Input
Amino acid sequence: MASLKPRLGNGKINLRELSKDMFFKNVVTSRLSQGNVENFPFNESRFRVISKKNNLANVGKGILYWMKRDCRVEDNWAMCYSQQLALKNKLPLFVCFTIFEQHYLCPTKRQQRFLLTGLEQLAENLKGLDINFYLLNVSPKSLAKIVNKNKLGAVICDLNTLRTPREWEKDFMDNLDCDIPFVQVDAHNVVPLWKSSDKQEIMARTIRPKITKVLSEFLTGFPKISKHPYKGTLNVPSEYSVDFKDAPASIKTVWDVDEVIDVKAGCDEALDTLHSFLCDRLQNYGIKSNDPTADATSNLSFWIHFGHISAQRIALEVKSLESLYKDQVDKYLEELIVRKELADNFCFYNDNYDRVKGAAKWAQETLSHHKKDKRLYVYNRDQLEKGLTHDSIWNAAQQQLLREGKVHGYMRMYWCKKILEWTTSPEQALEFAIWLNDTFALDGTDSNGYVGVMWSICGVHDQGWKEREVFGKIRYMVDYSLRKKFDMDVYCARYGTLTECITGKRPIKRKR
Output
């Protein structure tokens, strides 16, 4: 387990003396303490062979790590396994990332710039370890042909539970020579998805004991990636290779959304944000983290989504403060591990993770029953995008999404449920909410995002509540309840939407 220093005489951690440089050094030290990659006792439950061939190809001339989701060198189980396999067989190690059809996962310049900036830093880090990185604009089918032509011994990939990356894997495997094994490593979750459960879980209470039972087995430290001693070059047709300066033009941009100001990509920036969370905000997590006017969340979702930091690294560092903030640590680890891994579970085992028919039977029935209920307000997608509703609180949440690439976690529930209330059907509500999230959230197109929307609109991982118009038995949220809990005028003023206070009375419908 990672250990934060310096410590006081009683063994507690003196966070005031924990400088950023010292924190970074402690993380490196914790990796070195795990021994070298080649002899590290890799837990075989972390990977699964998804090809028919499960032994290293005899004629192998290298190992390829096809990186798709976890874009980092350190604290990456897929990277650790790839290098261990290459070292034990005295083979070169190659890493590639394909930007072919990347617009499905990063539809805007906002997301693409963050992705590419992180990859460029990754390439530099790999270069320092004598590991060649390849940025390729190539289909899965053509990538398989490159692997075949280079007579590689094995291909490793990381896990993404969404449909499009899984389709890429199938296309790749269908065109891979039958004697080359294709192995997948879950580098995103602390407990590997297939280890925590082999089915779709109903809610957090059903997956929590399964994760808790094996958590100590998997919540371990990472070895440090070594300088690779075996050199080699991947033979790639020039038309498939992409230079970073040309990469933005090589990815189709679906929506032209500006970058988020003052947010930087990369692993160092992610560790810097983790350091500030540990020192400044963890102590109030679970106390003020639901308050949209307080800065009490981890702010790490961008870097987790793009794979610039491992959830397991975060968990290790947060857990090291358990003696100081037991309740806050438990609360945060519930969100980071149980809730996040429940989201991956849902998207992996439910192909309709973004459709009404992916909801439980009771939710589909209640939404269908109330589908024709009269809506007091109805907004189109353009009005919602611009925050042109009668509700200043909702408009503030939408402005936060537009400017910062995120909506505060508690506010996102309200933001999403109101879309159900103000659109013509549950199907349209899902369509609009997912489009808004995937387009403007820097961490859009993510299992957490889809499950968040499905929880709000379709009651996924929830239960039936008191029946009402439009919502049926789906959990309801109202503006005056927010105002009772938090100073929403401060939140609205922050995003320029402060208007008259809405009280417990139903607001009067305004003409448009």
About this structure: Residues 326-349 form the longest helix (24 residues).
